[in-house]
Amino acid sequence: MKVIGRNDQCICGSGKKYKKCCGRSTVVSIDQVVENELNDIQHDMFQYAIHMYEEFLDDILDEYADIFEELPDDAYDLFSFFSRVWVISSIPTDEKTILEEYVDIYGPKCSRPRTRDLLQKWKAARPSAYTVTEVDEQRTYMTVRDIFTEDEHRVRIYETETGVEAGYFVFGTLLPAGANAIFFPTFLELPTEFAGDMRKMILDLFEKSDEDNPIDFMSHEFIDVFMAFMFGKEAVTADDYEWKTPKQQEVAEMFQVRMKEYDYDEEIVGIGLSLWHKYCERKNPRIIKTGVYEAALVYMVEQIFPYGGISTQEELAEEYDVSSGSISAKFKELEKVLEEEIANYEELIEDTEFDDYLF
Questions:
Q1: I need a labelling partner for 268 at 20 to 30 A (CA). Which of 108, 112, 166, 335 fits?
Q2: Rounded distance, CA 92 to CA 74, Å?
Q3: Concatenated DSSP letters of 205-268
Q4: What one-character-per-residue DSSP string does 154-178 give?
């Protein structure tokens, strides 16, 4: 094996002497040197975009001014930031995106051939959504799986305050950095308990879109996906489900009307509809009088989410013109069939700030 002298040209191809390049530290590998260099470059690229294309970025985002106006203060900055990242990587200013322009201008100036080659791969970068499959013990790297392609990437974690764990859902734009990847410039995260629903939600948006591949979908429908990630999709209604009988659908529709009249949050209504649909799928009840099922469903949902107050069975019996005993019987049946789902929601309320994550 050839011994490299400190004054020899560095083997990484930078053109510098070994002692002033990779030889400065015997601990840091060439891979790490290149990765750190690319991380610095992506920060510079973001600043380039902000300073050189401020008006272009503002013009694109002005098209979504109505969304900006409705955002709460704590979400406004996030929306503004990640929307700009999307424009930089996905929206051409003329024939090129800002990211492509930056790589074409500054890529050839990089001294390391390996860095130049990796920068060329950045041109294909687009936002996507991922499930975290692993986080190393040092919390230096995480492995993420793309929800569209199932491709896995090992990603460097630069954020010091992130609580990301295996099972989390993350959203951002990955840039190749050799054996690993880096997020441009950072990512959004969602805890494990919401990852499955969010994955399904985004895949449903893709399926219902006019796009044939996920790259175009994420490039063209980014705003809708981002809003789904931050706030969830539009309210679920009874019409979003397929029902085995008209009576089962009628119970869902009347439950929906009643809960909205009592000013229950749309997310709570959606959860109630989901629970009722699961019950119908499992039991396929033969319904003669819908009122008793409607009342039992209302009573069950209020027991789980007592935010708007809890109706007694007697009050519901009077409201729906049924007996309190029949409500009690149907409630116990619902409770038994949906035991696992109810327990999950109750645990979620106890263990998390549920209001902060409602979709």
A1: 166
A2: 29
A3: HHHHSS-SSHHHHHHHSHHHHHHHHHH-SSPP-GGGS--SSHHHHHHHHHHHHHHHHTT--HHH
A4: EEE---SS----TT-EEEEEEEEET
Q: Distance (Å, rounded) from C-alpha 183 to C-alpha 167?
A: 18
Q: Give the C-alpha separation, 125 to 99, whole Å.
A: 9
Q: What is the DSSP string of 30-97?
A: HHHHHHHHHHHHHHHHHHHHHHHSHHHHHHHHHTTHHHHHHS-HHHHHHHHHHHHHHHHHHSBSSSSB
DSSP 5: P
C-alpha 256/C-alpha 137 separation (Å) is: 46
The tens digit of pLDDT for each residue in 94-114 reads: 999 999 999 999 999 999 999
The count of other CB atoms within 10 Å of the CB of residue 118 is 22
Cα–Cα distance between 169 and 275 in angstroms, integer?
24
Give residue-wise pLDDT tens across range 65-96.
887 777 777 678 888 899 999 999 999 999 99
Q: How far apart are CA 204 and CA 209, in angstroms?
A: 9
For residues 257 and 277, give the distance between their C-alpha atoms in angstroms, rounded to a whole number. Answer: 16
